[in-house]
Description:
seven-stranded mixed beta sheet; Aldehyde Oxidoreductase, domain 4; alpha+beta
Amino acid sequence: MLHAAVVRSPHAHARVRALDLSRAREAPGVRAVLAPGDCDALDETAEFEGRAVVAVAAETFGQARAAAELVEVEWEELEPLLDPEEAVRRGSLVGEPRRYERGGYERGLAEADAVVEAEYRTQTLNHNPLETHQCVCEWRGDGLDVYISTQYIWGVRDDVAAAFGLPPDKVRVICEYMGGGFGAKNGAGGYVTLAAELARRSGRPVRLALTRREENVGGGNRNATIQRVTAAAKADGTLTALGGEFICSLGWGGWLASTAGPMQLLHACENVRTVEYGAKLNLPAMAAFRAPGFVEGTWALECLLDKLAAELGLDPLELRRRNYANVDTMDGRPYSAKELLECYRRAEPHWERRHEVRARSDATWKRGVGLASQIWYGGGGPPSYAWVRVGSDGRANVVTAMQDIGTGTRTAMAQIAAEELGIRLERVQVQVGDSSRGPFASISGGSSTLPSMGPAVRAAAADAARQILEIAEQRFEREDGTLSLRGGEIVSPDGTTWPLEEITGLLEDGQILGKGARGPNPAGMRVLTFGVQVAEVAVDVETGEVVVERIYAVHDVGRVINPLGARSQIEGGIIQAMGHTFSEARLDDPHRGTVLTKTLDAYKLPTIADVPEIVCELIDKPDAQLTNLGSKGLGEPPIIPTAAAIANAIRDATGADVTSLPITREEILAALREARERERVGAPSA
Ligand code: MOS
């Protein structure tokens, strides 16, 4: 196997004036060198830092890197466009501005007793999967094997096949295990094309793994936002208008995630007007990141709602209840299921703790409680397929070409098959991670793995169970449809039981083969996930230090398959949100547009010392309209409301309005000064 290294633009905007590869080509161990023109993933013009220019494959990574350093590039530097508002003014946009309106926004404002406005900002964030983007490509005959860390085996297959003009099944994609993706690994990416082309030219397998520095520049990011938002309500809290302008700093590519989505979907409001811009800048392109758009948008919306509650003198939880949506806010469809009201009910005792929490404040440390709601997709959908194979030993094998991205997918699928077959979990094996050894399976993105794949596995297991029971009914001379599988046995209504192996044992080398497909989502219904989080904080009003002491989270995702796995998703989401709220930020040189936080000592992920007490609850009520399983996804929901719940707790504790993420000590101290000023002049908080 050869190892690859990539020469990348050190500039945010530049052109190659001259390129000299001669020394690199002759360097020890070098087996292939690619330059612009050899591969679409290389270019002589760099519109963002980290743009690939040259790729080298050598016997060792050290040799590849040494050769890359011998590539001589003469750059002509160009002016970078870095200011998102300037980009919007100049019309430098990714896609068209996205406008949405329902009802009459101006009328809604006119009818209101209170109107609050604010500008909220969010920072650029790196996904920081502990395993960086990487792959090994190997040509076998006229086909290509790609070993890769990915959230979507089939997406990689299609991307790579298209890049090399191959029939898709000539590309085999393998992902047994991976170290995190968070949305950054939903497709193949240029690095895979480079590895495959280097492998083609050298006739050797090639590994290309991004270094941490490459990852934190070009591995994708959650785009920064500027959100100018307005909420208007009657004195009783009824929302009369919601509006916002959302500027998303997408970088040179990517897509415009729905930052306005929470404003459009979460609360009932007849009059809503939003416009979203995707600013095209000389910065690395965004990539989906765990509830893209909704994390940023919920931060602004749910902070704004508390500001409105303060203005109206209403309880923030009560304000949300008064604007509860009983049908979809955008098109009036019924929800397939919605337990947000039940979430509010369960959150109430945790919300009630605020009196006791506040009372523990002293002159320096002020304590308070805040909450925020959450809405997101997560219903999954077709197509997805699974096979279940039962051998003569009565053990089952689930086969499907999905990926387990670290969320415990194998376990959940084994649980579903075991329950349907009436056998112990230990007797089920799950084979995933190989596009040539199983049928098509869904992307592990959009919180869709379990709701897309689980129903297919259940259907496949049911198909196998039906075949086993048909044999048993013949063998034991029972009427069709009278026997069932339970506790590893075939069970008759009259109480007779037979070990499962008594039937499967007849098979010898034969196998029972069940197959299942994911059915459609319910027609004419909106399938969404819901939740509420309540944060308790302590704020040192002298230093601006914030300690999150407790977070209560209650989520409604239909039926829960694996309670421990679900709890891990909630805890993981909240911990990642703690990083988003307090410490993480990609910092760019404001003039040059180069990334300053390329390493994990500069880009501050949360550590266990930052983690508060986390109390999780799940409603765990199957969505009766949704598939044969009634489960929705939980990967994304828990990261959505945390930042707003924390900011609302800070406001509850101190009266300070924080409006920018991350919430630094400077931000807190400035917000405290503003709050004191407001109090001094007696101006309303709006
Ligand atoms: Mo996701 S951010 O849909 O992987």
